[in-house]
Every structure is written in structure tokens, then in C-alpha cells.
Write a structure and sequence with these properties.
alpha/beta; Rossmann fold; 6-stranded mixed beta sheet; 4-stranded antiparallel beta sheet; 3 helices; globular; binds xanthosine-5'-monophosphate; binds magnesium ion
Length: about 180
């Protein structure tokens, strides 16, 4: 068990299992993007550990860049608008792979994907370290998914509980 702030978390997915799965995703992406020089865009802060491990499993020519997402109330009926901070790359005609730590309800990405598509990439896929199928409420799907997790709060491997826990090398789940 580890303590993060006021809560206890128990080991959930080991470092070895994570490394094995991330390497599999790397091989799959290598295979799918050969000759296309994909541009990985990692969403900070949560995905930085996943992005670092996955990118080093990629052996084809590839680029990586990092962004932060900021959401604000939109003026349209669609509600929140999510924009990228730090996006300097021209996405036009690029094969983009968005890297996320976790897709929970899918709200963040469902708001951000249209913004990315408006920059006219040649293709757009999503690679998420984790997905929470039971929590999903929006029409968003990871093309490459590391692990499906139950609807419980998790920390470690880049994911935080109120700022702490990102440095834990394995994944932990909340212990009730
Ligand atoms: P949505 O609902 O927009 O949420 O898909 C995605 C963002 O919510 C955060 N999140 C978590 N962070 N443990 C975390 O440390 C979790 O179990 C968890 N569930 C959601 C995360 O920042 C993600 O990008
Ligand atoms: Mg996040």
C-alpha cells in the first residue's frame, strides 16, 4: 500500500506488465506508420511517462511534441471548448497520434479532437495508456489502448492524485 495525501492506494498493474504492454503498442505503431513519419502529440501533464516509454519503443522515423489542454466555456450549445497550449507544429498533412494518460468520460478529448481536425492532419489516431470503459460518456475511442481499467481512481506512471503520485513507477488503484 502507498499513501498519497489522505488516501491509500494498492498496487494494480506492475512495472513489468506496463513495460511489456507499452512495447507491444510500440511494435503495432511501428508497423502501422512505417514510412509515414508520424507526429506524436503528448498531452501534459499526465501522459509524460507513457509518452517517454512509448516513444523509445518506436524504431521508425517519428517526431514528438508536447501540449497542455485548457478548457473554457464555449459560446455554442456544445458547451466546453478545449484548446491546446504550446502547439507550434503545423499539422497540415501530418499523421498525428495523440498520446493521453487516460480516457475517463472522454469529455476532454471529445472537445479537443474537432479542434485538432480543423488543422487538417492527414490522419489522427489516439493512443491512451488507460481507458475506463464503464465511465465513458462521449463518443471517443482509443485506437491504441494500453489497459482497460475499472471505474476506480488510479495513480502512478504519470497519473496523479491532486498533484502527487506521478513518480510511482507502477499503477496503483484506490483502496476503499
Ligand atoms: P475525461 O473524463 O475528460 O478525463 O476523459 C480525462 C482526464 O481526467 C483525469 N483522470 C484521472 N486522473 N486518475 C488520475 O490520476 C484517474 O483515475 C483519472 N480519471 C480521470 C486525467 O487527467 C485525464 O486526462
Ligand atoms: Mg490528463
Amino acid at each position: 500500500m502507498v499513501q498519497v495525501h489522505d488516501k491509500k492506494f494498492r498496487p494494480f498493474i506492475s512495472r513489468e506488465a506496463i513495460q511489456k504492454r507499452v512495447a507491444e503498442l510500440g511494435r503495432q505503431i511501428d508497423h502501422d506508420y512505417e514510412g509515414l513519419r508520424p507526429l506524436f502529440i503528448a498531452v501534459l501533464n499526465g501522459s509524460f511517462v507513457f509518452a517517454s516509454d512509448l516513444f523509445r519503443c518506436i524504431t521508425i522515423e517519428a517526431e514528438i511534441s508536447f501540449i497542455k489542454l485548457a478548457s473554457y466555456k464555449g459560446t455554442t450549445s456544445t458547451g466546453n471548448v478545449v484548446t491546446a497550449i504550446g502547439m507550434e507544429e503545423n499539422l497540415h498533412q501530418r499523421h498525428v497520434i495523440l498520446l493521453e494518460d487516460i480516457i475517463d468520460t472522454g469529455k476532454t478529448l471529445s472537445a479537443f479532437v474537432p479542434e485538432l481536425l480543423s488543422r487538417q492532419p492527414a490522419s489522427l489516431r489516439i493512443a491512451s495508456f488507460l481507458t475506463k470503459p464503464e465511465a465513458l460518456k462521449y463518443d471517443i475511442k482509443a485506437d491504441y489502448a494500453g489497459f482497460e481499467v475499472p471505474n476506480k481512481f488510479v495513480v502512478g506512471y504519470g497519473l496523479d492524485y491532486d498533484g502527487l503520485g506521478r513518480n510511482l513507477p507502477e499503477l496503483y488503484e484506490l483502496a476503499e
